[in-house]
Amino acid sequence: MRRDKEEFKKWISEEIKRFTREDPDNRLKLDGSFIFEEPLVGFVAGNDPIFYQLKEVIGDFHLTPYEAMSKIVENREISVLEEEIGVVSYILPISKKTREENAKMKSMPGERWAHTRLFGEHFNKKLQRHLVAFLGEEGYFAVAPQQAGELFETKRDDKVGYASTWSQRHVAFAADLGTFGLSDGLITKAGKAHRCGSVVVNQPLDSPQRREINETNIHWDCLYYQNEGCMQCVYRCPVGAISEELGHDKDLCFEYAVKKSAEFVKENYKIDIYGCGLCQTDVPCEEESPFKEE
Fold first, then answer.
1. How many Cβ atoms from other residues are within 10 Å of residue 268's Cβ?
2. Total domain count for the chain?
């Protein structure tokens, strides 16, 4: 059954929240508690000009929703029009218990954080696959670009460092779910300790009424950019990968995460994953946007 735009938004939002609440894979193996709390959900038109701006900011390799869907369906008897597709983006806030444990860590991730990084991302991908199937059962056609192995990749770019062909954070920014902080993290109403996901669907959707895209507004929720009164993420980084001069040094961050933290996690927590998250916890933007408009 086809729905109008507002009905669709309410319907799919409820399904994302229901699945997150009820699916057993959103539970930590450590104690059975929730990995993620109730999601935030946002929407954006597939032909929104912001996706072409992202090509300029990230790189020409970054896909627009239309490019992603077209490439995935090119060998199928399905036709898509750019003006007839929309993007559903969501934020999965990491549980308070996990954040509190990680906030106490000084140089390596906590055990719950490491498990969230591994099994939480498994759930995130499962949710994307579920949405594709769920929408298909209702007569829609949807794709999850992050799940398309032939399309999705992370590469080392000379301009921006490590970047993916479908940046979940930037898609969430396009859906007005948050803005970027000094550490590059996306600060949302639920803070920046989270995971992101999205699907592209053949359902026209309206874009949110975003502020004008400029240097101030893309960092709207970061206290540092608003009044230079906070650099807590800088102090929290164990390897100095965040600074006023460079922002987020992705190479230094990546080297630390995939080597030192991965070794620590494997030896101490007995799982094979890298992670850190120190700049996402014990900071003013951990669980909310700290900047309040007067």
1. 12
2. 1
Instruction: Match 């992101």 to its residue by tokens.
Output: 196
Site of tokens 């009424």: 209
Give the model's pLDDT for residue 287.
96
From 29-33, 66-70, 76-80, 187-191, the region with the lowest mean pLDDT: 76-80
Q: CA 291, CA 193: separation in Å to the nearest integer?
A: 16
Q: What is the pLDDT of residues 255-273, one digit of tens each?
A: 898 889 999 999 999 999 9
User: Is residue 23 situated within a structural domain?
Assistant: yes
Task: Tell me how far apart the alpha carbons of residues 171 and 17 are, in angstroms, rounded to a whole number.
Answer: 19
What pLDDT does 123 receive? 98
Q: How many whole angstroms separate alpha carbon 117 and alpha carbon 287?
A: 17
Q: Would you say 98 and 105 are in contact if contact means Cβ atoms under 8 Å apart?
A: no
What is residue 194's predicted lDDT score, i.e. its pLDDT?
98
**3 state SS for 158-218:** CCCEEEECCCHHHHHHHCCCEEECCCCCEEECCECCEEEEEEEECCCCCCCCCCCCCCCHH
Q: In the block, which residue shows the tokens 């799940």?
A: 147
Residue 292 CB-half CA count within 13 A: 3
**pLDDT one-digit tens code per residue, 201-234:** 999 999 999 888 887 789 999 999 887 779 999 9
Q: Taking the alpha carbons of 257, 262, 265, 267 in that order, is the dihedral positive or negative?
A: negative
Phi-psi region of 35 (alpha: psi -120 to 50; beta: other; left: phi over 0): alpha
Supply angle C-alpha 259, 264, 265, rounded to 5.
Answer: 100
User: 85 CB contacts (<8 Å, ≥6 apart)?
Assistant: 46, 47, 65, 66, 69, 200, 201, 202, 203, 204
Q: Residue 121 domain-assigned?
A: yes
Which structural domain range is residue 249 located in? Answer: 5-280
Residue 285 located in a structural domain = no
